[in-house]
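Revision sheet: structure tokens.
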Amino acid sequence: MLTDKCIIVGVTGGIAAYKVPDLISKLVKAKAEVHVIMTESATKFITPLSLQTISRNPVISGMFDTPGEWEVQHVSLADRADLLLVVPATANIIGKVCAGIADDMLSTTIMATRAPVVFAPAMNVNMYENPLVQANIAKLKSHGYRFIEPATGLLACGYEGKGRLPEVNTIFEAICGLLGAAKDLAGKTVLVTAGPTREYIDPVRFLTNGSSGKMGYAIAKAARDRGARVILVSGPVNIPVPAGVAHVPVISAREMFDAVVKHYTEADIIIKTAAVADYQPKEKLESKLKKGPGDWNLELERTPDILQYLGEKKGNRILVGFAAETDNLVQNASVKVQAKNLDFIVANDITQPGAGFGTDTNVVKIIYRDGRVEELDKLDKKEIAHHILDRVVNLL
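Predicted:
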């Protein structure tokens, strides 16, 4: 995906610099050509020799270092770059670039490049939330600079809040998204629903299913990588939210219905992978029901049919559904395509090995309105996500 892409990694003086070697290693393994520029402050946290060894290229750490060959280094690298990543990006480098200051090798290279520039901020939560820092970030975004949102958690300074460097995998995926995929969904908005819903019986018990959300999250990432604006409406899952995706968390089927109704008008494409509960308790108890001597009869009622609603409101949108079945796969899924007014449905038999809930792979059939059926072999859900989007692009 990143073969022969020239990536400049600009390292600034933050404690999170210790994560940079791992990131550079992943980039090199992905066959990218990595060049590292360090600020003077960055060398206090990690040595140039470490990054030179991992990147397999000389590290530039001084404005007036003697080049190995005659060339103006900041211009040469700026011209060759496919992407320039600043990680960790301190408040200082963000403010410097925002003000147009170019007083070291990193800031001059940023000024000289026409490649996409991506900042991965990491700093104290109070610094990150400082209005001046936020104004600088907003200004840089308005000029086309990109940002990977920092994570929330315990910071090195002892504070807790937003300001942690995103996980290395998150940064790596963002880079792959910018450089690695065809941008055939640029200008489109994709609404994806993912995960299970929970229908509470009492404050501690609920009805749900085994959906992990992996398929929906894979589609959200793939759509983002192909240039789409992505809205991800997700039930409760244990998966990190993909960088660059608008996340709308929900719990119940009713909450998911309300979120979809709120956002579907923005979408050109809707892909509904969520395993929404079909029924909910008719009455939710306010306190935990204690175990008694006899049986407990639970009365259920239907939840809102989100896919039916979307089919009725479809208009010119592309609408894709999912069907998890245990028998009569093609027959049951084909009925759903017509009844819900879908462009196609992705159906899988969850009893098959390597398919269904919780797995990293899936085995699916794609069933169209005209009755055509395509069968995909067992594939990683990331690969299946791109197969699905390929068919969406064909419909576009």
